[in-house]
Amino acid sequence: MLKPRRKIIKKELKKDPYIEFLAKAKNNVDKNRTLYMRWALGVVAVIVAVAFVSNNLQKSKDGAAESLGKALVTLASGDVDNATLQFEFVADEYDNNESGNLAKYYLARSHFNDKDYLAASSYLNEIADASFKLTQFPLSIYKMLALIALEDGDQAAAVDHYEQALAKAEVTQQEQNIILDLADVLLTMGDFGRSLELVQKVLDEAMPRTPVHNRAEELFGRIEFAQSAG
């Protein structure tokens, strides 16, 4: 025979830990309803703001790449003046992303080709420490800075820039050519020992009768002549 279900009195109900937790939680919500609503709305606002900013950043990146692409097409068509104006727009409008930095690179190269070394170095120094997906840009930046330094008669600065370029080189032939550029400057400075050491490295590693090997041989002869004349 089934036993009659025992009645749970109110006092016992309140002693149940789970029920007590729910009761306290409800009272807490009732007392702080306005605070919780504000907190919830604040969280939603933050999420919306983050999504909005991320979306705008992506649009900015896409817009920068599109504008840069148009400038490069204009440059390829031979319209240097209009290309320069477009590069200047990208550099000013998208100053802090890769497209803006690439625009500054092309502006620097344009000024360098025109022998406006002051304007070129201004752009080059802005992007010298920038991050590029392709290593050809840092290499070209430091090589232009080195050549500008040589134009200014600052051989020590040129050595520093060639060494910075060398640190960025990933292709063997690029590395060898930069080594010979550096050796050439050191030869001019009278540092025959280090210059000869660098040239010998290229002679040992480069394939005979290649342009870089021929250049190394020519530089080796100049070093020997300078040593004997000294």
Describe the fold and architecture.
With 230 residues, the protein is mainly alpha-helical. It has eleven helices and no strands. The protein is elongated and about 60 Å long. The N and C termini lie far apart (123 Å).
Brief synopsis:
The protein is mainly alpha-helical and 230 residues long. The chain is built from 11 helices and no strands.
Keywords:
mainly alpha; disordered N terminus; 230 residues
Tally of DSSP helical segments: 11
Radius of gyration: 34 Å
Integer average pLDDT: 81
Class inferred from helices and paired strands: mainly alpha
The percent range for helix content is over 70%
Q: Profile the largest sheet.
A: none
How far is the N terminus from the C terminus? 123 Å
| General shape | elongated
SSE sequence, one letter per element: HHHHHHHHHHH
How many strand elements? 0
Q: Approximately what portion of the residues adopt beta-strand conformation?
A: under 5%
Poorly predicted sequence stretches spanning 5 or more consecutive residues = 1-19, 43-54
